[in-house]
Structure formats: structure tokens, C-alpha cells
Design brief:
Blueprint lengths: L3 H21 L4 H24 L6 H8 L13 H19 L14 H22 L6 E3 L12 E3 L1
Parallel strand pairs: 1-2
Helix pairs in contact: 1-2, 2-4, 2-5, 4-5
Length: 159
């Protein structure tokens, strides 16, 4: 899948799946957070591939490639806002997948609607940036989450 189009196709499949999971299982927050992250991951991989012609196999390699903090400037770097959105999605997904609480090694974390709302906001931020950069034209997806308001997001129609 080390091509721009391949990553876009996978991101689109993930977004379709996210919409379906949300419609059928709206309270299964952990999987929705995880799907949100992997949608963003494929958008970032598409960007890095388009910018540098390379594919990054690890989360750390990808994060380093897009980080605005790198001392060597290159076209794969993203804004701080986009980078924070991506990193936050990574942390929320890790928490959802492993019941990991980043604030304490001793506490188990559980994913709830607040985490899902954060995830969708961050995914929307990445999608907006990506669409502006690559004119991708993502369709709006129908979505429900108690923590989100109608009209708040560009790529998610809150019901």
C-alpha cells in the first residue's frame, strides 16, 4: 500500500466503516476511536508518500516525518495544529486499544463518548487540512456522538 492512492483508498474504507459502526453500535467507543486514528494514519501516510516518495512503517517514523519540530525542514512537515491532532488521535487510540491511561501507569482507562468526540474533532481537523492541500473532496458522513454538535464539523453530519 505504499502509494498515495492506496492510502487514500484505505482511509476512505476506514471512514466508511467508521460511519457504519457508529450507526449500528454508537456506544462502542473504543473501536470508533481506533478506526478514527487509522483513518488519519492513512491520510498522513498518503501525505508523506506524496511529499517524500517514502512510506513509513512505524508510528514513530511517521510522527518524525510529519513533525513540525524537526530541525531539517522538508515538505512532509505539517502544521503544529495538524501534528497535535494526529498525535492526540494516536494517544486516544492506544488508550482505547489497550485500556491505557497516559496520565497514570497504575490506572486502567476506559473510552467513553468524550474520547470519541475528541477523536472525531481531531480527525476532522486532519481531513480539512488534507482536503485543502490535495483537493480530495471527502464526502460528509452521518455521525452520532453526545459530545458533538450539529454544524460543528466539516466532514461529519451530526445527527
Amino acid at each position: 500500500m505504499s502509494s498515495f492512492d492506496g492510502h487514500i483508498e484505505q482511509a476512505s474504507k476506514n471512514l466508511d466503516f467508521l460511519e457504519k459502526v457508529n450507526a449500528e453500535f454508537p456506544n462502542v467507543y473504543d473501536w470508533q476511536v481506533t478506526i478514527s486514528f487509522y483513518s488519519a494514519l492513512h491520510l498522513m501516510n498518503a501525505h508523506v508518500y506524496k511529499s517524500l516518495g517514502t512510506y513509513h512503517r512505524t508510528h514513530n517514523d511517521l510522527a518524525n516525518a510529519i513533525s513540525p519540530e524537526s530541525s531539517i525542514k522538508h515538505p512532509a512537515q505539517v502544521s503544529e495544529e495538524v501534528f497535535v491532532a494526529y498525535e492526540t488521535l494516536f494517544i486516544l487510540s492506544r488508550r482505547a486499544r489497550y485500556l491505557y491511561n497516559a496520565k497514570s501507569d497504575n490506572k486502567v482507562g476506559f473510552t467513553n463518548h468524550k474520547h470519541l468526540a475528541k477523536s472525531i474533532r481531531h480527525l476532522n481537523t486532519i481531513m480539512e487540512w488534507f482536503d485543502q492541500k490535495y483537493s480530495q473532496g471527502f464526502p460528509k458522513r452521518s455521525f452520532f456522538c453526545v459530545g458533538l454538535k450539529k454544524g460543528e464539523l466539516v466532514y461529519f453530519e451530526i445527527r
